[in-house]
Design a protein that fits this description.
The chain is α/β, with parallel strands linked by helices and about 350 residues long. The protein folds into 2 domains: about 40 residues, no CATH class; about 250 residues, 2-enoyl-CoA Hydratase, Chain A, domain 1. The chain has 15 helices and 8 strands. Strands 1, 2, 3, 4, 5, 6, 7 and 8 form an 8-stranded mixed sheet that branches. Strand 2 and strand 3 form a beta hairpin. Helix 1 runs antiparallel to helix 2 and helix 6 packs parallel to helix 8. The termini are far apart.
């Protein structure tokens, strides 16, 4: 069953008419409606607001991590457990090949349907999940296997058990360890990238986002609740936070935006999977040309540049050397004049 968002009502009406025409075998009407549908899709998706893009990022029919893994990988084999406490189902780890290249994919999985959502904890990993991700990443480093991280989470799980087992420590350790991991890493936000839950597998040589994905330090609802004490102001918060792929690319916080179909991944999963696969393989080929030192240096430079800015209102032109000497001479002359004046007063 197709789920339509509020702004997709025009598309929904044409879709319904199209299905009816197909069932009646009215192919003349079908051709006309298909043209109308393409026009409506372009009209609708070319003028989306930030909040509408957020809704697309959270769309229940959007491809999840396992959809990408099953659509891209051959000979995929799942790796389980953190070897400490449990096997967190909110994070999945697979080893296999993509177009003949040995790869490890680590992704956050939300789950569909009540049973699967509970199994995957609604895509909110616990410390065990982050430790599993790091264990597998370390294994990839040992065997020099490239890693693809797929980010899709509303955030790390905030439950008591997760906090007792060191949620913040697990996230912080991943940030530290992945920043210095000596193997090729590519991280892609495929839907919702929320807070530390996204950052924990977001440190990589290349960081990209799908066209209709979001990446933020807090959910718009949480931001609205804190700033205005009103979670219903989420649309206003979404616009103010600059969390869409286009905004983050413009701010220099991500490397690339992957052009999934203009109508969104929920309407064309196959095209979205192919777009991500092509980006990953092209990026992998690019990174393979670099030696380890250059690649790690580039990663370091990218990480330390995050958040850097220049306030032009307080930037002053550096004084010339002659001006510095003149200013110093004036200060010395003033100092000696004061001493001479004091000496003259004492003698008188």
């Amino acid at each position: 069953m197709v789920t339509y968002l509020e702004f997709e009502k025009g598309i929904q009406k044409i879709d319904q008419d199209l299905q009816e025409a197909k069932s009646l075998g009215d192919f003349v009407t079908v051709a006309t409606l298909e043209k109308n549908l393409n026009k409506e899709i372009l009209k609708t998706y070319k003028s989306l607001s930030d909040y509408q893009k957020l809704q697309l990022a959270r769309h229940p029919s959007r491809p999840y991590a396992l959809d990408f893994i099953r659509g891209m990988m051959e000979d995929a084999y799942e790796i389980h457990g953190d070897r400490v406490f449990a096997d967190d189902q909110a994070i999945v780890c697979y080893i296999g090949t993509i177009s003949g290249k040995k790869v490890i994919v680590i992704g956050e999985q939300k789950g569909r349907g009540t049973k699967n959502k509970i199994k995957r904890n609604f895509g909110m990993p616990q410390p065990d999940g982050y430790r599993k991700a790091l264990r597998v990443a370390k294994m990839a480093e040992k065997f020099k296997i490239p890693i693809l991280f797929l980010i899709d989470t509303p955030g790390a799980y905030p439950g008591i058990g997760a906090e007792e087992r060191g949620q913040s420590e697990a996230i912080a350790k991943n940030l530290y360890e992945l920043s210095d991991l000596n193997t090729i890493t590519v991280s892609i936000v495929i839907g919702e990238g929320g807070s530390g839950g996204a950052l924990a597998i977001g440190v990589a040589d290349k960081f990209a986002m799908m066209r209709y994905s979001v990446f933020s330090v807090i959910s718009p609802e949480g931001c609205a609740a804190i700033l205005w004490n009103d979670p219903k102001k989420q649309e206003q918060a979404t616009k103010a936070m600059k969390i869409t792929s286009g905004d983050l690319k413009e701010l220099g916080l991500i490397d690339d935006v992957i052009d999934e179909p203009i109508s969104g991944g929920h309407r064309d999963k196959s095209a979205s999977i192919l777009a991500l696969k092509k980006y990953f393989l092209d990026t992998l080929e690019e990174l393979e040309q670099l030696d380890d030192k250059t690649r790690l240096d580039n990663r370091y430079e990218k990480l330390i540049s995050v958040g850097a800015f220049v306030d032009e209102s307080i930037v002053q032109e550096e004084p010339k050397e002659s001006e510095l000497k003149s200013d110093l001479a004036n200060k010395f002359n003033s100092f000696f004049d004061k001493i001479q004046s004091s000496s003259d007063k004492k003698e008188s």
